């Protein structure tokens, strides 16, 4: 689709709504949409995003501020209507080739009432918009007492024939109260997290995250070992299969390559691949050396950070370095009860026997994680509150709904206020 995003300002101007506008623009462009940002103040954004700086859309333009002072005195003069018409003319030029405009806050805030009035008129002319609502002037005690019910203050409490989006349930209730719409008429689309903005992932990590859909899993288990028979990796594969039968979406990351000193390790890799296929966990069990040429220390740190638990199935170890590594990253460690692991893990890790049934080990992992509030919240954030998950779960269906309305489906809005 051809999508416009509109706000008083956009990045690099610093602000909460500005940040969301910038993220939305990049997200939509990444999913193949043609994106333009209409803003009063702003600069270059992500590749594929066209930024149009229209100064009269800003909240601090001298002409906008002059009209605001007149309005505070109750003077709805010709200057207000002239500015509204001028803004409308600018917007028509940039919206003529747009399927939908995502309007952030302007329809419910009073920071540029000539702009709000122009948008009302454009909606009345049939241009499709989404009222993406972060704040409502009428719900803010700092503003509500200063706003009269007269025009043009009434614009920010007028229900329009648009899709209403609230960033939270609390804002949905405010929209319902201020505009007199049922809460069910408002779609909640929360803010998300851009994990790449919080991390310095290596190129190898980013490749693995994408190839294995690591952020879309209930659980990511890391087995940070080389592939040799004493690592008993067939048990780890069987544990992954047992977790899958309990409807867990998971990835098991075996991070090391085959051990270099025993030529039979290549045969062992083939056996593990066959076992993975026979158990139906070819997607769930990843031998990382098959996907990236080398797991450097920084990439290993990234994978520990992404993972939810360490799983170690060795029958013999001289020292259990992955045990304290898991502790450093605050991960629960599930490992065989062998002397090397017990020496470093003490009573702080979860043990099982090397010959325990895979189903019993899977149940130990599932029960332990299910009792862990930090894990449960982390899983919720990963599955529901990243921008990618929000696009898939919320934004894409919204755009489909807007597209259906554009094709002639009945609207579910209220009355359109035609201004002028």
Task: Note the topology.
Layout: E1 2-9, H1 16-30, E2 34-41, E3 49-53, H2 62-72, H3 78-95, E4 100-104, H4 113-124, E5 129-133, H5 141-144, E6 163-166, H6 169-179, E7 186-188, H7 195-198, H8 203-212, E8 219-223, H9 233-245, E9 250-254, H10 265-278, E10 285-287, H11 297-306, E11 309-312, H12 322-328, E12 333-336, H13 339-345, E13 350-352, H14 358-370, H15 373-384, H16 387-406
Parallel strand pairs: 1-2, 1-4, 2-3, 4-5, 5-6, 6-7, 8-9, 8-11, 9-10, 11-12, 12-13
Helix pairs in contact: 3-4, 9-14
Structure description:
The chain is of the alpha/beta class. It has 2 domains: 2-194 and 387-406, Glycogen Phosphorylase B (Rossmann fold, 3-Layer(aba) Sandwich), CATH 3.40.50; 196-382, Rossmann fold (3-Layer(aba) Sandwich). It has helices at 16-30, 62-72, 78-95, 113-124, 141-144, 169-179, 195-198, 203-212, 233-245, 265-278, 297-306, 322-328, 339-345, 358-370, 373-384, 387-406, and strands at 2-9, 34-41, 49-53, 100-104, 129-133, 163-166, 186-188, 219-223, 250-254, 285-287, 309-312, 333-336, 350-352. Strand 9, helix 10 (265-278) and strand 10 form a beta-alpha-beta unit. It is elongated.
Q: Average pLDDT, to the nearest integer?
A: 92
Low-confidence stretches: 409-420
Structural category is: alpha/beta
User: What top-tier CATH class of the largest domain fits best?
Assistant: Alpha Beta
| N- to C-terminal distance | 31 Å
Q: Indicate the CATH architecture of the largest domain.
A: 3-Layer(aba) Sandwich
Number of strands: 13
The CATH topology of the largest domain, please?
Rossmann fold
* Major β-sheet profile: 7 strands, parallel
Strand order within the widest beta sheet: 3-2-1-4-5-6-7
**How many whole angstroms does the radius of gyration measure?**
28 Å
What are the secondary-structure elements, in order, as H or E? Answer: EHEEHHEHEHEHEHHEHEHEHEHEHEHHH
Gross morphology is: elongated
Overall number of structural domains: 2
Name given to the CATH homologous superfamily of the largest domain: Glycogen Phosphorylase B
Q: β content, as a range?
A: 5-15%
Percent of residues in helices: 40-55%
Number of helices: 16
């Amino acid at each position: 689709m051809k999508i416009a995003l509109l706000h008083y300002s956009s990045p690099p101007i610093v602000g909460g709504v500005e940040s969301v506008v910038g993220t939305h623009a990049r997200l939509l462009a990444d999913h193949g949409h043609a994106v333009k940002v209409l803003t009063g103040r702003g600069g270059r954004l992500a590749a594929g995003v066209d930024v149009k700086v229209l100064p009269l859309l800003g909240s601090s333009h001298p002409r906008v501020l002059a009209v605001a002072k007149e309005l505070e005195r109750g003077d709805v003069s010709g200057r207000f209507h002239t500015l509204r018409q001028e803004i409308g003319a600018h917007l028509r030029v940039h919206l003529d080739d747009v399927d939908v405009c995502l309007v952030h806050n302007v329809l419910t805030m009073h920071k540029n009432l000539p702009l709000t009035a122009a948008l009302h008129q454009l909606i009345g002319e049939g241009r499709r918009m989404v009222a993406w609502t972060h704040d409502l002037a009428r719900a803010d005690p700092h503003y509500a007492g200063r706003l009269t019910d007269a025009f043009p203050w009434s614009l920010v409490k007028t229900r329009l024939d648009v899709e209403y989006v609230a960033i939270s349930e609390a804002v949905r209730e405010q929209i319902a109260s201020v505009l007199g719409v049922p809460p069910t008429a408002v779609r909640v689309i929360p803010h998300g997290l851009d994990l790449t903005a919080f991390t310095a992932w290596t190129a190898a990590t980013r490749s693995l995250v994408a190839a294995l859909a690591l952020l879309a899993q209930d659980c990511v288990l890391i087995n940070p070992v080389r592939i040799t028979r004493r690592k008993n990796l067939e048990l780890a594969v069987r544990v992954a299969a047992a977790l899958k039968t309990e409807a867990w979406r998971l990835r098991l990351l075996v991070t090391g390559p085959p051990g270099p000193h025993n030529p039979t390790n290549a045969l062992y890799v083939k056996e593990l691949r066959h076992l993975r296929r026979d158990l139906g966990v070819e997607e769930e069990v990843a031998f990382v050396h098959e996907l990236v040429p080398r797991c450097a220390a920084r990439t290993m740190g990234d994978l520990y950070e992404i993972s939810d638990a360490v799983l170690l199935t060795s029958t013999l170890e001289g020292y259990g370095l992955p045990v304290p590594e898991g502790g450093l990253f605050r991960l629960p460690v599930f490992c065989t009860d062998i002397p090397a692991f017990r020496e470093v893990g003490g009573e702080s890790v979860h043990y099982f026997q090397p010959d325990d049934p895979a189903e019993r080990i899977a149940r130990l992992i599932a029960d332990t994680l299910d009792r862990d509030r930090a894990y449960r919240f982390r899983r919720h954030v990963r599955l529901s509150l990243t921008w990618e998950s929000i696009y898939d779960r919320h934004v894409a269906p919204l755009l489909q709904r807007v597209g259906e309305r554009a094709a002639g489906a009945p609207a579910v809005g209220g009355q359109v206020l035609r201004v002028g």
